[in-house]
């Protein structure tokens, strides 16, 4: 019988249901990113596989689980960028700028860490809501210096 099931599975005829992708909701103030308690007022965070590294909707920040594999400053940048959307709405430039400025003020984004973040973004393509990585980087430099 085991041999028959192995043959059926190999042929692709056997369907074994897989559990849905894990989702985890983290209450406001309870998220730890690289040992740092990340908070965005009353906004909760959902950890789940999405089509981006992070996203925002009113009252919720979404983080792809792979965000936890990034360096500390990049984890905090993407979280803070999405938090900025709670304040500034869909304005991507404002979210980038605020995240960079908060990182500098709070001490988790040094010039070296900003350089690494920019390197990770330099090949980003433009889409309906985002400018190219090169344009975003130039603006982030100005915000960091301000």
Automatic annotation (TrEMBL):
Protein name: Uncharacterized protein
């Amino acid at each position: 019988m085991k041999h028959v099931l192995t043959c059926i599975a190999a042929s692709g005829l056997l369907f074994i249901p897989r559990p849905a992708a894990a989702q985890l909701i983290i209450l406001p103030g309870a998220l730890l990113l690289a040992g740092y308690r990340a908070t965005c007022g009353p906004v909760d965070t959902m950890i789940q596989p999405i089509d981006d590294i992070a996203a925002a909707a009113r009252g919720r920040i979404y983080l792809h689980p792979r965000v936890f594999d990034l360096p500390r400053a990049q984890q905090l940048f993407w979280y803070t960028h999405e938090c900025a959307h709670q304040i500034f709405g869909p304005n991507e430039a404002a979210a980038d700028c605020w995240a960079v400025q908060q990182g500098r003020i709070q001490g988790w984004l040094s010039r070296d860490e900003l350089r690494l973040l920019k390197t990770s973004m330099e090949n980003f393509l433009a889409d309906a809501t985002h400018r190219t990585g090169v344009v975003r980087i130039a603006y982030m430099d100005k915000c960091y210096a301000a």
